[in-house]
Structures are given as C-alpha cells and as structure tokens.
Design a protein that fits this description.
heterodimer, A: alpha+beta, about 15% strand, B: about 625 residues, mainly beta, Methylamine Dehydrogenase, Chain H, Immunoglobulin-like, 2 domains, 8 helices, about 10% helix
Amino acid sequence: MQRIIQKANSFFETPIDLRSRALVLVAALMLIPTYFFPLWDMTLYSNQFPEGLVLNIYSYKLEGGKSPYRDDLKEINALNHYIGMRPLVEDDFTEFDWIPFVIGGVILLAFRVVVLGKMSKLVDLFVLFTYFGLFSLWSFYHKLYLYGHDLDPTAAVKVPPFTPPMFGHQTMANFEVYSYPALGSYCMAVVPLFFLVAMWLSRKAWFKERHP
Amino acid sequence: MKKHLAILGSAIVLTAVIAALMTGCGGPEKGRTGARSDVQEAALKTYVQPGDLDEYYIFKSGGHSGQVYVYGVPSMRHISTIPVFTPYPATGYGFDKESKEMLGGFTWGDAHHPSISETNGDYDGRWLFISDNANNRMARIDLRDFKTKQIFGPIPNVSGNHCSAFVTENTEYVLAGSRFSIPLPKGSFEKIEDYATKFKGVVAGIAVDPKTGHMSLGWQVLMPPFNYDLGDAGKGPSAEWGFWTCYNAERATGKLEVTASQKDRDYVAAVNWKNAEKAIRDGKFKMIGGVKVIDPKDVEGVVYLLPAGKSPHGVDVSPDGKYIIASGKLASITTVFNIEKILTAIQKKDFTGNEDGIPVLNYDNIKDAEVNVGLGPLHTQFDDKGFAYTSLFVESAVAKWKLGTWEVVDKIPVSYNIGHLTAAEGDTKNPDGKYLVALNKLSHGRHLSVGPSQPEASQLIDISGEKMSLLYDAFTEPEPHYAQMIKADKLKPIEVYPKEENKHPKAIWDIKDSKIVRNGRHVEVSMVAVRSSFEPWKIEVKKGDKVTIYMTNIEQTTDELHGFGLNEYNINVVADPGETKVIEFTADKAGVFPFYCTNFCSALHQEMQGYLLVKP
C-alpha cells in the first residue's frame, strides 16, 4: 500500500516534458473554437421544410438558421407553442453564463500546466475538464428532458411527454429530427484525449526517475 | 331488299366507326379552331417541372380590373396579382389606412401600360410604373416586395392617361399625356363646338427620384386637341426625346370612328425633354392647373410633329435608338423614321406646315421605310438578332421583319386579334430574343367555356429560330394592354419584412406589449398577430368611438400571413410577416362583432379570432 502511494506521489511530482507541454498548449487552443462554432446542431425536416429548420447551440447562445425568408428559431418556437413547450430563449439557459466562463478557466489552467510543467496539475486539469464535460452533457440532456416534459397542460395539442433526441434521429409528429454534436463539441472531446496522451508521453520521465 | 338493308346497315356501322375515329378516342377535347402548335416541341419548351422555376417574369397590365398580373414564362402560370388602382381584399389592399389613402377614394382605375425602370436603357428591376387611363394617375410598384408604393395623381391637366407609362433611358421621367382633350385647367367649361380651338391636350414627363423612385410633377407641354394614344422614350441617339402617337388630327368630335378617320396622315409628336427642362429652367412656361406648362407657340425647339400613316397607334424605338417605328392601325404599313434624318430636318427647318405653332416635319425626308407588314399594325417589339415583331390586329398575326432591309421574313397567326405584344426585354437596348407573348384581345372560346364574359388570351411564341412557333395559350383577366418580360434573375424580391426594417412607431413584437389605450373618443389598439391568435383578442369600445388598430404580424417565416376580417364592418386587412398595418374605423354600429384571421395560417387558424364589443 505504502508502495502504491509512493509510486503515485512520485508520478504526480513528475515534471512533464516539452512534447507534453506542447500538446497541452494545443489542447488549450483547441478550446478557442467553442467561442465561434456551435456545440450541438439540431435539424428538423418536414414536408413544409425540406431544407430543414436548423438550431445551433453554442456555448453561450442559441441561434436558429437565418435566411431572408425565415428565422428558424422563431419558427421552432411558433410550432412548439402548439404542444405547450416553453419557448427556447437564451435567458432560460444558465449554461450560457457558466460554460464559456469555465472553458476560459480551463484554458488558463492549461497555460498554468504548460508553464509549471507538473504532472499533478495536468491530472487535476484532466479530471476537472472531464467532470465539466460530463456535467455539461448531463445538463444538456436534462434541459432537453425538461423542455419535453414540462409541457403546458392547457396546450392546444396534447402530446405524451418526451425527450427530444440528443444523438441521432427521432420522428416527432410531422418532423424528422436529427441531433448531433457539432464542431465545438468535437474540439472539446479531443481535449481530454490530448491530456491523456500528454501524460503518456511524460511517463518515461517518471520511469527514469524511479529506475535511474 | 334484304341485301340492300344489309348494305345500308353496314354502311351506317362503318360511318359510325369512321366518325368515332375522326373525333379521336380519348385525348383532350379540341377547342374551337385557330392557331395550333407542334405538340412535342411546344410541350418540351414550356414544361416547367413542379418545384422548378420559370425563366422570366411577365408583368401584365390588368386594364380596367385596375391591377397587374404576374405570370411565369415559359410555363405561363399565373403566379400572383399586384393590386394597384383597385381595392383587393385578397391582400387587404385598399382596406388599411395607408393603401386606402393612396387610392384616394377611387375604387377602380384602368391600368394600361407597365414600364420597368431602366438604367442605361436596360431593365434595372427596381420599379414598375403603370398608367391609369381612367383617373389620370401613375403608380409605382416596388419590385423588391411587389407592392404598390405610390399612386401619383390625378395628374393636373392630363386627361385620359393612355399614352403612358414609358420610362426614359435612365428613368429620369415617366411619360404621360392626354388621350381625351379637354378645356384646361380642369374644371373649366367650354362648348363642345369650340373643341378645335378651346380644348387642349398635354404631353408630360413625370419626374422620378433616382434614389427612391418617388414621382413628382416634371414638365408638361400644351398640345393641339388631338388624341394622344401611345408613346415611347428614345434611347442612345434619341435618348433626349419622347414620342407620342396621336389620332384625330382632324380635331373632330362626335362619332370619332368616322370623323377622326378622314385624313390620310396623323402625327407622332416628338418632344425633346432636355429642351423642355431648359425651357422650364428659363422660366418659359405658363402656370396651368398649378403646373409649369410649356406652350410651343412661345417656345421653339421643344416639340415637333412627324406625319404618320392614318391613325397611328403604337410608336416604338429600336434597341439602338436609331429608328422610331409608328404603326398606322388603319393602314397596312409601319413607318420607320430615322432619328438622324429627324435631327437634320429640324436643323434645316424642313417643315411642311404647323399645328398651333408646332412645326410639322417633311415626311418624305425623315422616313427610312414604309414596311408592308400586314393589316392593322399596332405595336413593335425587338429581339437580339436585329428583327422587329409587329402585331397585326386586323390580320390576327405577328409579322417578323428585319431592321435595315425592311424585309418581312415570317408571319404567324394568333388567336385572336392581337393588341400589344411583349418580347423578352423586347423594348430595351438589349433584347433577349427567345420568347414573345402575344396579348390578344379576343379568345373566342379557345378555353373551357365560362359563359359570355370571356377572358383575354395570351400566347407564348418561340422566337429563337428563323420561324416563329406557337408554344402555349394562357388566359388573362381583362385586360392585358401591355406587359413587360424581365429575366427572373434581375429581380431579388424579399419574402418577409425583416423585423429590423420595420420602423412603424406603433409596431410591437411581443404579446406582452399588446395594449388598448383610450384617449377621449379615440381607442388605440396595439395588436400582435401570430400563429394562432390576436392579442388583444377582446376590444371593448363605445358606439361612435374612433378605433385605430395597429396590427403587427410578428412572424418572420415566409408565407405566414395573417388577415384581420371584421364582420359586418367591411374590413379585411392582411399583414405580411414582419409588417404593421393600421386599421381605422368608427365603431358606428353597436353590438358584438367577431373578427378573425382571413388568411389561412396554421392548423389552429380557425381558432384565430376575437371580438369587438361595441356598447350602445
């Protein structure tokens, strides 16, 4: 037991090498697109909308497809009100306040890892970020669940409570709904992988330290 | 005997079989006789697949219906109607405050000649102007949203605005004029026996603001009491000129059919609008009816008369601006004048007389040709290969002839009695060729019978080849006097009014902001219309209150229109997505009056309703 703790301690104390630091830096930069690209895309197809109503969810805002002939967000809300769904409005998403803030924090912490070059800091960051990512996913799922379940009982059209799809396809009334993560999420998904690789690359330094 | 009967019997059977074969088994029933087309060729050239778009827009004047009809070419499908001079409940036109004021109390107009705005002699697709022969007005339709934006008039001194609307090369002016001469200013009285001396015509240029298209009074020229019939603006070398045909050079009254058809020559009036502008600037005008009017007796160089074949109707300027082509409707020739020769004659003062001080040019020295096109020539359009196409009313045909050689190369019969014709961008500096539409006055039952009140016929003709070929028949409500055919990609219409552009002071965008405010006897309602409700849906007033409803359709989705029909109050207003409409009336009837959405909007459209409660 003592040995395992010692082993772990020495691992956490291991300095990370240059390649790992570079990788952490790249991972930090990978988070910047989340400020410019959506995290999630939903598209609703029907006979009336063969080109689909598009909903892009960013880390800090909600945006519908916009064209000179339609505002998709407005349209989705106009249609949803018939089944008593609350309108999708940015004020309802507290996520939009804390997600960009947390991502900014992660970027700063990643810079800290690059500068201080300690394995423990990297492990912290990995755990924190994974927790943040999973929590965000749950939070998103929960939001979808609430929108589909917290329906106005006086709605014109009564539908059984439902959860809109998070991954993949679902048929809802006359709509075929497709929901997939978007560029922002893919960028976020590779970040913990980069962290893991960074740890892996610096494992040799740890070995050397333990078996000089 | 039996044998004879058998022969007779088989003969009867045989006859029946032949008759059955002759009438055809199945297939569409044939209408009455008239022009036919090569079925396969025509079908391939006109078939536009469901979901596909047409290549050209065509804007047809709706004559005494007062409207403009929009068709697609080559499918010839009627796409929409633009209300102009007549209220049109289908779009709520003439019922809301703004359009009601624009109509100025008139409930009809006679929409005659449409004209698309031009830049350098080509359609720029910004506006469509159209004249009103009945109430002497001019309307401007904005082609960004296909809505009538301005109705100018009744124009002072102009009486029977038929020879209109034709735009100059850069839309500096829209031409106008008098078909029916009257004593001026309007409201004066003279005896009809004094027609020849005391009645006056005018030709005019309505000024157009180059940025906004806003029309205002430009210049007017006082003319002898002829009947000014049609016009065209020059281009290129003739760009400074406007041309008007006239009949009744006899200055006759009464049965004009006879009295105005005595002389062999009538005139084309040519006005140099640059000189007209100058005369106005130099103060050489009289104020008549509040307008600056140039009297040719006092001012030289503004107007000349070109003698033309008996009772000319159309006058059309060739794409290069060199030829001015006037068709004498009671002749069988079309006269081609040459602008260079006209300018030379003016310079040399080669005149043969004058009419009320207006010099008459020497016919023999200004014409290039008299083209023997056929009987009853009316109007001419052009293609991209140097050919002209003249409509022949009496002959029911279109003649194709070559500019320069004056040779008639082809003729195609139409059904029936063609008036105007329009070729693809066929009155611009750069016609497209390709298509020509014959706007026929009579259809004589070439359609499923609809009783005695028959539509007019429009026939699509392929002019891409050496020979013209008939492609398609379409029918139009009365009455396509002229039309404009413009390449579809030159227009970029919007499909919703963007929220950001709505500057209406009373527009609201949230149901929470809807309200009813009483100010003495005036009740103002800020209303939202959105799928599928009106907010507020309950409006309580007292009998005699003035009610103003500002209704904003807060949709931003194409085709989500909402109507406001108020039962027994004769009100139906439609707001397009993003539009605010003002509904104003006096609640002069006590009782409870439902209002409802008239324009089908959603699955719960029927539920979109409310009540106006008027307390006695």
